[in-house]
Specification:
Trna Endonuclease, Chain: A, domain 1, alpha+beta, 6-stranded mixed β-sheet, 2 domains, 5-stranded mixed β-sheet, GMP Synthetase, Chain A, domain 3, 7 helices
Length: 250
């Protein structure tokens, strides 16, 4: 099972809008193996395209063995992030056939890939330098919409974010919305973290007033949704030699 398989327990085209958005968001950050006509020549590669009733589609998989299995043998391929492949195909008016024969099979036409590029171009709405007039517990709608996607995105940010809190905010100009308050982020990484969260939000239905992103450290209100990235996986223990084994000779 790959991360895309995990998200596609309901087939993509049968899933609701938030689930499809999470799948596309994960696709953008997944390394894909795209079939080529021949081995790359220098820095140039020609994608292998298939003429289908819906249009022309490139073939890619999120594992090399899946690609070879579908084609029926060794195949030339190029490995690149999903966002890069999607942008190139959208520019040429071509679609993407991903993981055919697997639970995460996707058939995305050029229009969907162009929308994906639009979402990935999202810029973060940053919380102003002024302190909010009031912070409160997030709405039930916001928690239902954001809790799972935020937890998944934090899993990609282990070591970059110490804590993330979702709160409702009322600002001094009377504006009301929600805010993501992050702590434990190195200032050198703040822009990248904010951009990653902005991309995630762009894939989801918009909440009234939008969602600001801030790196201040105010006291959190009761009822704030607080999320922390999972701890890093423990380092594997070095193999121990059986004391009763014969000595190794060189």
């Amino acid at each position: 099972m790959t991360p895309l398989d995990e998200l596609c327990k309901v087939p993509f085209h049968e899933a609701d809008a938030p689930a499809r958005a999470r799948i596309l968001s994960r696709l953008a950050d997944t390394e894909l193996f795209a079939a080529l006509v021949a081995e790359p020549a220098g820095d140039r590669a020609e994608l292998r395209l298939f003429d289908l009733p819906e249009g022309r589609f490139a073939l890619a998989c999120d594992r090399e063995d899946r690609l070879a299995g579908f084609v029926g043998g060794p195949v030339a391929y190029v490995a690149l992030p999903g966002r890069v492949l999607a942008a190139a195909l959208a520019e040429e008016g071509q679609g993407l056939l991903l993981n055919p024969g697997h639970g995460s099979q996707l058939m995305l036409d050029a229009e969907v890939l162009a929308w994906l590029g639009w979402a990935l171009a999202a810029r973060p709405s940053m919380a102003g330098a002024e302190a909010a007039r009031r912070l409160g517990a997030p709405s039930a709608e916001a928690v239902a919409l954001l809790a799972e996607p935020l937890a998944q995105r934090l899993g990609d940010m282990a070591g970059l974010v110490g804590r993330l809190a979702l709160v409702a905010a009322e600002w001094r100009d009377g504006r009301r919305n929600h805010a993501l308050i992050l702590a434990g982020v190195d200032p050198a990484h703040e822009a990248a973290v904010a951009k990653a969260l902005a991309e995630l939000l762009a894939f989801l239905p918009e909440l009234p007033g939008g969602v600001d992103i801030g790196f201040a450290a105010p006291g959190l209100p009761p009822g704030a949704l607080v999320l922390e990235p999972p701890p890093p996986a423990p380092a594997p223990e070095p193999p121990r030699r059986d004391p009763s084994a014969p000595p190794r000779l060189r």
